[in-house]
């Protein structure tokens, strides 16, 4: 009996040692990583500042919760779909420079950037220019659907659509979202209504932004058109020289 008991204890001991070794040798994945993108990068690299990726699209495919994408100045000819990402809720995407242009340019129809996953106000899109270069390629600069990102210090210009929302288009699926637009310049966009910003069924916050020279060709709201957006805040903006049908 003593020998049997000793053998059982010995087996349990070795099993615990085995589990412990598995735990300490298992790979540990870093959290809150920073991935870099550069026009001189390559998507086969590791995304560090010294070895950046070439495309924002690829960076979006590898990030996790609370990660950051920093984009070096330059022109990136991409359309960004942030509606199919899974496994996390929040991240930061920012142009790395406050003085040099970091532009996301779409050559094709549709939004330059589409945000459709349940992001919170911890997600920030910062320091970017979003535009279409082909006037025949219709679509807004940013489309937000049922999400709550912060769009900050971005320039949104040269976007045209025959639907509402030329610069920014915001829709809700039924729940009340509170996307934030602050310190942005939204100019020279055209749409059916809400040439600069169109929002529907959302409690949107628009602050400290310049909204100018936008056109609504179908109805009102050359600068801003809100529809069913009770509880919205529009404060301390410069809104002028926009045109819409009366």
Give the beta-strand count: 24
Structural class: mainly beta
Instruction: Name the helix and strand elements from N-terminus to C-terminus, one letter apiece.
Output: HEHEEEEEEEEEEEEEEEEEEEEEEE
Largest sheet: 8 strands, parallel
Count the DSSP helices.
2
Q: How much of the polypeptide forms β-strand, as a percent range?
A: 25-35%
Summarize this structure as a short list of keywords or feature phrases.
2 helices; mainly beta; eight-stranded parallel β-sheet; 246 residues; disordered N terminus; globular; seven-stranded parallel β-sheet
Model description:
- The structure is a single chain.
- The protein is mainly beta and 246 residues long.
- The chain has helices at residues 2-25, 56-62; strands at residues 34-37, 67-71, 74-77, 80-82, 91-95, 102-106, 113-115, 124-126, 129-132, 142-145, 150-152, 155-157, 168-171, 180-182, 185-187, 190-191, 197-200, 205-207, 210-212, 215-216, 224-227, 233-235, 238-240, 243-244.
- The chain has an eight-stranded parallel sheet, covered by helices on one side.
- Strand 1, helix 2 (56-62) and strand 2 form a beta-alpha-beta unit.
- The termini are far apart.
- Mean pLDDT is 86; it is low at 2-7 and 18-29.
Layout of helices and strands:
Layout: H1 2-25, E1 34-37, H2 56-62, E2 67-71, E3 74-77, E4 80-82, E5 91-95, E6 102-106, E7 113-115, E8 124-126, E9 129-132, E10 142-145, E11 150-152, E12 155-157, E13 168-171, E14 180-182, E15 185-187, E16 190-191, E17 197-200, E18 205-207, E19 210-212, E20 215-216, E21 224-227, E22 233-235, E23 238-240, E24 243-244
Parallel strand pairs: 1-2, 2-5, 3-6, 4-7, 5-8, 6-9, 7-10, 8-11, 9-12, 10-13, 11-14, 12-15, 13-17, 14-18, 15-19, 16-20, 17-21, 18-22, 19-23, 20-24
